[in-house]
Structures are given as C-alpha cells and as structure tokens.
Amino acid sequence: MTGSIRWAGNKKRIAATLAILLLIVSVLSGCWDLRYLDRLGVVMAVGVDSDPTGKQQLRVTMQTVLAQNAAAGNKLASEGMAVTTFTETGDTMFEAIRKMTRKTSRRLFFSHTRLLIIGEQAARKGVFPLLDLIERNPDIRGDIAVMIARNTTAEQLLQTTTQIDAIPANQMYDTLEINEHALGQEYLVRVQEITRMALQKKQQVAIPSITLEGDEAAGNDEQNLKRIHPTVQPELSTMAVLKEGHLKGFLTAKESRGLSWMLGRVKSTVVKAACPNSEGYFMVEISGSKVNMSAVKPKDGIPVIQIGIKPEGSVKEVMCSDLPVDEEEMLKEIGKLIDQSIEGEIEAVIVKLQKKMQLDTFGWGRLIYMQKPALWRRIDKEWDVVYPKVQHELKIKTRIKDTGVRGNSIVK
Amino acid sequence: MFSDYMLSRGRKKTKKQEDREKELQQNQLGEYEQEPLLPVLADNIKLLQSEMGNSNDIVVRELALEGEGGFIKVAIIYVQGLVDEFRMNESIIQPMQSVPFQAGPDDPSRVQDELKNKIVAAGRVEEAKDWKKLFEGLFLGNALILLDGCNTALASSCVGGERRAVEEPKTETAIRGPREGFVEALRVNTALIRRKIRSPKLWMEQKTIGRETQTPVCIMYMKGLASEDTLQDLRDRLDAIDIDGILESSYIEELIADQKWTPFPTILNNERPDVIASNLLEGRIAILVDGTPFVLIVPTELNMFFQAAEDYYQRFDVATFLRLLRFFSYVLALVMPSVYVAVVGYHQEMIPTPLLLKLVAQREGVPFPVYLEAFIMELVFEILREAVVRMPTIVGNAISIVGGMVIGQSVVEAGIVSPPVVIVVAFTAITSFVSPTYNLGIAARLLRFLLLIAASTLGFYGISIVLLLLLLHLSNLRSLGMPYMKPFSPMFRKDWKDTLLRAPMWMMRERPQAIAVDNLVRADMDTKELEGQEPVQ
Q: Which residues form the Spore germination GerAC-like C-terminal domain (chain A) (predicted)?
C-alpha cells in the first residue's frame, strides 16, 4: 500500500517537473525560428552580371515582391509596382546579397525564388561558381530555373515591367514553360540539373536564353505598362550552349529545337513542311515524341550513335491546294515530309555542336560510358578528339494520328 | 488489472475513515433511521412533522374509518406535488371510506392486512417497517398510510406530479430515426428502453446513490452479452461512491471514471433510447440516473464519439462518407489554427507563392504577431460561443450579430487582425460543430489552445510533439478497465467494420469482439444454437 502511494507521489512529482520543463522550454526557445511574414522580402528572381566597373566580380540584382501591390484584389493595394529590385556588387553572391541589407528593411527570403538570370558576360566567365550558394543553402530551392540574358544584362531584364503578369519573374518563367510545352524551342533547365551534369562531367549544359525586345531603357517605367504594345518586353531567345560551365554561344531557332528533339525535351510542338504538289505549307502538331539513343559497335574504333525518334502528331493546318488528307496513303507521305523537316533541324544542330563547336551537349560521351564501358575506357582520354569524328545514324518515323476535324482543305 | 486497483482502493479505508463515515451517516437521518415506528398514530405524526421541520408540502390527512366495533384512526401522509392527488383519492381514500372494515380498532394489524390486500387499489403497496423506509417511500412519491396502534406503515404508489413529456432529443437530432428522447423520470426512461428490447434478457439493477438526494440509479444490460467482470467492476465503483447528491449523470461519470486527468470523455452519454438500445445489444452497460435524460454507456471507446445514430439509418456508403467527414473535421478543428500559425510563422516555404504573396499583403501593417492574432481570435470566438450558449435565445441573436459584425468586419477593416486568421478561426468553428458528441468537441476546444502554444513556439515540430503525446495519452486511457482506443489499440481487426467506416448491415454479423465476451453472433444465426446457449454466469 505504502509502495503504491509513494509511487503515486512520484508520478505526480514527475508530471509536475515535466510540465515545468515544458513551460521553460517553450519560453527558452523564444520562438526559435519564427519569421514574421510581414518582415520578409520575397525574392522572386536573382540576376547576376559581371560588375561593369570591374572593381568586383559580380553585380547581383534581386527582384523582390512588394506584396501589398502584387496581391490583386487586396483593398490596401496602392498604385505602385508589384516588384522592386535591389542591386549590389560583390566578389561572391552571398557577399552581394548580405550587402543589400544596407538598402532593404526586410529580410530577403529565397524559398520562393523561381528564376536565376545570368548575364552574358558573367556566363562566359563561368556559371558553376554562381550555383554553389543555391545548392548549398537549405533555404533556397534547387529547382530554380536558370536563364541567360542575351544581348542585355540580367539587371536590365529584371527591371523591365511586364504586362500580363505583374511580377516579371513570373512572366519570364511562365513564358519558358509555355514555350517548352507548345513549341519546344527552349526547355526549362533547373539548377539541380546543371549541378548533376557538371558532376557527371560527361555532358555539356545548354541553358535557355532570354532577351529584351524593344527599347531597353523604357522597361523600368510604369509607362511601359500603360501602352497596348509595350515599348519593351522580355522575349525568349534560343538555347545557349556552354562548355564546362562557360558560355560558348547561342544556337539558332532551328538548331535550338533540333537540340530539344535530340534530348527528348519536345513535349508538344508544331512542324512545318512544304506542300508536296503545290505552293504553300502545312502544319503538323506533334503531341509527343519518343527518343531512343544508343551507342553501337564502333567502325574503326570510332563510335556510332543511333538516334531513333518517333514523334506522334496530327495535321492541324493545311494551306495546300492539293493535299488529300482523307487518304490513308497520304498520311504516310505526310509523315515522311515531317520526318524530313525534323531531320533538317537535328542535322543542323549536330553539325553546329559536334563539328563546329565540338560540344558534347547531346550527352554522347555519357551514352557510350553507360552502354559501352569498354570502348569508353579506350577513348576516355582523347574524347575531345574522338567526339567530332563520331558517326551517327538518324532514324525518324513520324506517325500521323489524324487530320483534325476537317477533311480536305478548302484551299484551291 | 483493474481489480487490483479496486482492491487497493478498498484497502485504503482506514479506521479513521470508517469512523467518519459513521458520523456522516448519523448526521443523515438522526437517531430514527433504523428504528421502528411508534405504536400511537399521533406520536408518529408529530415525530414525522418535527423531523421534517413542519415543511408545508407534507400533507397529513387524518381519517376516522368505520370498523368492526368502533372507528379506526388512519392518517394518509404524502408530499404534495410528488403524488397524483386525484388518483390517490380514487385508489386509497374513496375505497377506504366507502366500505366498513371487517376488522376493528382493537386489531390494527388485521386492518392493515385488509387495507393492503382488499381496499387500496394501487399497483404497488409496500410495508415500511422503519423510519428509513418510510422516508424513502414518502420522497419517491408514495402515499403513506399510517394506522393507530400499528408500528408499520403502508406505502402505496401513486406517483404523479408535473413532468416533461417525451420529446425529440435536443442535443442529437436525426433526419431519419426515432424521434423520442429520454426524459428526467427514471421509470419512463427504463420503459423507453424496454420498448426497444422486448427480451427477458434485458436485466436491470437499481441502486440508490447520494446520501441526501437518494437518487435512484439503474444499471441496464443484456444478460449473457455484457461482460460479468465489467459489470462487477461497475457495481463496485458505484457502491464506492459516497456523495451527498447526484444531480446529473455527469456526477457518476466523473466519479467512476478510470482516469480523472484527461480532457477526453471516457464515458459516453446519450439521450436517445435507440442509441442506448444498440449499445446494450453490443454488450455494453447503460447507467440511467433519475432526474436527467442523459444516460451513460460503459465501456466507451473514442471511436464511439464519432458515430451518430443516423449512421445506421442511412445507407452504409453515405454513412461511411459522413463518418469520414466527421473524423476529418475533428482533426481539422483540432489542428487548423496551429497549422496556420506554424506555416505562416515558420514554414513559409510550404505555401504556394501566389498564396504567400496574398498572405504577406494581408499581414502588412497588422500589429500583432500571427500566433497572438490566432490566440486572440480563438479566445474571442470561445467567449462568443459561451455567451450565445448561456444567454436566452432572444439575446443570443443579438450577440451573434454583434459578434459577426465586430469580428468579421470591423477588426479586419481596422487592420487589427488579418483576414486569413478570421477565415481560419471561422472555419475551425464550423468544423468543431460537426462532432456528433458535444463533450468530445469540448476536448478539441481545449487541446486547440495547447496546440496553438506548441505551434507558436516550435512550429510543426511542436505540433507533432503534442500530437504524439496525445496519441500516447489516448492509448493510455481506460474506460471501465477497457482500453479507450479499442479496436485500434489493442487491435481487433473484425471490429473495424464499424469504426471509421460503417460496413453494410449484412456484413456486420458479429458483435464487437472487444466488448461482448460471448454470444458474438448477431445476425444470420441458427436459432437452435441460440436456445441452447447458457447465459454466462
């Protein structure tokens, strides 16, 4: 009996001690990691240029949301801009960012950053050093999209107002996504993909580029928004190709989509082909494409890459007077015409990247490493010499599923 | 395991306590308690009146009745308001006066027999041999018949007085299902259950609890279904109660509960006879207390609080959906404000960007940190709710208008509180009303504040700590010795048919294994088998 009573007493004491400890802990923690929402400056995009004055390495621009202006439908919203930018120079990214506290009254918050824009100059110096901060810091996401500012600076781009989306970073990001899903000329590249490729060291990176269309100087002004056709607006350019993280050049629009075809990044696109028997063109909308690349046994020690591409699509526009799409045989012929168009794009990019620039953006080296390790061991050391000599066999087989809800065209 | 606990509780009665008990009992009814009545009628009347302080509602009607060889002095004593006076006149006084007695005043015991066996036309006539019985009979609404020269009294039942009629229960309404609810009178309530289960196996045990209130408490169970161990446990616990008054079943609920320190109700109460009947058929035990429509059910599981009577009257798919909805709402009611505080205060990266920007904009210029804001609004809501419950209905409307205006409009417009908090608090309020049982809802109200504190100091980490502790606590709870988290912990897979889901009737052929010890088959059974089955002893 006494035992049970003593135990009950102990139990009470333990409970009381625990309660007190819990209370102390909750006070000691002092709201530990608490961040006040209204004290955060939400950074949507980061821009990096090389410092034009040359005093320091980098010139970093932050596009930060002014939430009271950005949130539509908010009564408190004033007439001001949805975003503001802070620019600061520094030898490293972090230095520049922390130096910005001289100008911001809020803690910059990177968890929602979507976009990293790298100026052309800075990209030529090297992209990899700029990514370490993003990869290393747990507060910053690794799935930030990377773009290269072509013929302009990242700062200029981030200071350009946009009409459709009040936050320019969103507009640029969404444009890229729409482009990838509807034209396939450029595709989204995330920081973590670049890091992964850099670590594998067997594939060169390509990054989409963006430029400004119009009068650059007019971008940083409300007037740009008040016109029906803006004086200046961001416009996607083509894929930029890099070597070991250094910008080497830009592809043409044709080559750019050729690269997308090769890498299987085409989700949906349109392909143009000339009418077989008359003037004009017809269009096929591709709704999906399967790519199969494989390394086969070498001829004379030079590897051969087989590329098989199987797009699927349907005829969506016919401007030809003599293209009877309601004939079964015609569909196969259309498919072949489309094959030729796609082949042209792919051959163009192979010529450009393999022969001229000698950049292994296609990941052929990695392909050989994966599929023919013995061969790779032999050519690993002299891959730079071997690569331009690598043969390829391209096979494209487009399947036309249907011709839309119209039979033959009314074009005469 | 529980019997050990009971034993230790029994052993705790030291000599000192026993002395005190005796003293208390003496205070109770004075020295007359066990003593027989006096032989002279006038003395008895005098004693009774003085003992009761000449209370006005005690009516003493003295009669002189014609008997063999003289008049017999008789007194009829009753409490006004507890007795149906009209019926008493018809069944006791009129028959007494109309026919002369065969016995005379010199043989009062024969007169009493005559009265009891021949004259009094009441359903139940009992002999009260001592003062204790006499008072008991008096206060239960009997008319006492005292004879001169006789040291026992007759207690003739003619219970009457004002009572609430059987109405639709207010706390738990159903769209489909019986419309009757329990009332305050114990006998009506037991009858309501008898009307549902017409079986000789429905057994009933009555106890009187409360030193002063002498409240009749009734245990009802299905013989052969309810566990005998649990029954004995319950009897012991009820017998151990020593309190001056039982005014509501909640007194008993608190006094017999296994764990006293918990926000969760470990005993279910309900005012629907159909719910009680279905629980009796599962092998549970009902405790009916006179003076309240709320009947207790033991043993209780957490799971039962999410079941509404209507679940069994609607199609099983609908019922399952509603049950899941209820469970989900309860979780929401518990964690929503704290999750909001944690997300906004600590885990902003979890919010989709457009929503984050909205929230930032809304919080712009709000003077309080988010946790304080949430805390204030929750508190304001609790105050409003309490005010509406306590106020008369007419005033209640005014309160809701003022509350709605002040909270919904002005506070937000003045920029003192951000709109999302108001949305969260309002939605939490609605979800907390989904819980079919009121007292589990109150538990959520309390725990919400605990979670809010955890969330505002440690974010999601704090919430998960508190939720884990809650889970531990729940698994530790017992209801009359039975685990509260049954059938999840310990696990009874077969019983899961009627937990979060409600399986179709034709699939629930067996009673919950966790409750009924024997006689598991509920439906689709062989009748011969049932007849052969001996009740558990």
A: 239-404
A37/B363 CB distance under 8 A: yes
CB contact under 8 A, B357 and A77: no
- Return the structure tokens found at A90: 């520094």
Among B357, B364, B453, beta carbon nearest to A26 = B453
pLDDT, one tens digit per residue, over A56-114 is 999 999 999 988 787 755 444 456 888 999 999 999 999 999 999 999 988 899 999 99
Contacts A77 to B, Cβ<8 Å: 361
Q: Looking at the predicted structure, is the pLDDT value of residue B408 above 90? A: no
Interatomic CA distance for residues B195 and B369, integer angstroms:
59
Question: What pLDDT sits at residue A29?
Answer: 55
Is the minimum CB–CB distance between A142 and chain B shorter than 8 Å?
Answer: no
Q: Which of B312, B327, B357 is the last residue of a domain?
A: B312
Hey, what amino acid is at B288? L
Same domain flag for B285 and B332: no
Residues B472, B385 share a domain: yes
As a CATH number, domain A255-402 is 3.30.300.210
The verdict on a CB contact (< 8 Å) between A74 and B362 is yes
- Asked if residue B352 has a cis previous peptide bond (ω within 30° of 0), the answer is no
Residues of A in contact with B362 (CB under 8 A): 71, 74
How many whole angstroms separate alpha carbon B37 and alpha carbon B128?
9
Domain regions of chain A by residue span: 37-250, 255-402
Q: Which two tokens stand for residue A44?
A: 């949507």
Number of domains in chain B: 3
Instruction: Find, among A316, A309, A179, the residue nearest to A256 by Cα.
Output: A179
Q: In 3-state terms, chain B is what percent helix, strand and coil (to 5)?
A: 50, 15, 35
- Of B514 and A144, the one with more pLDDT: A144
* Torsion sign across C-alpha atoms B272, B273, B278, B282: positive
**Whether the Cβ atoms of residue B9 and residue B239 lie closer than 8 Å to each other:** no
pTM of the complete model? 0.81
Closest-CA residue in chain A for B344? A37
Residues of B at the A interface, defined by Cβ within 8 angstroms: 8, 11-12, 344-346, 348-349, 353, 356-366, 369-371, 453-454, 456-459, 462
In this complex, do A67 and B366 lie within 8 Å of one another by their Cβ atoms?
Answer: no
Same structural domain, B43 and B72: yes
* Of A122-136, B11-25, B161-175, highest mean pLDDT: A122-136
> pLDDT, tens digit, for every residue of B98-131?
888 888 888 888 888 888 888 888 778 888 888 8
- Cα–Cα distances in angstroms (integers) from residue B441 to residues B331, B352, B431, B436, in the given order: 11, 31, 10, 8
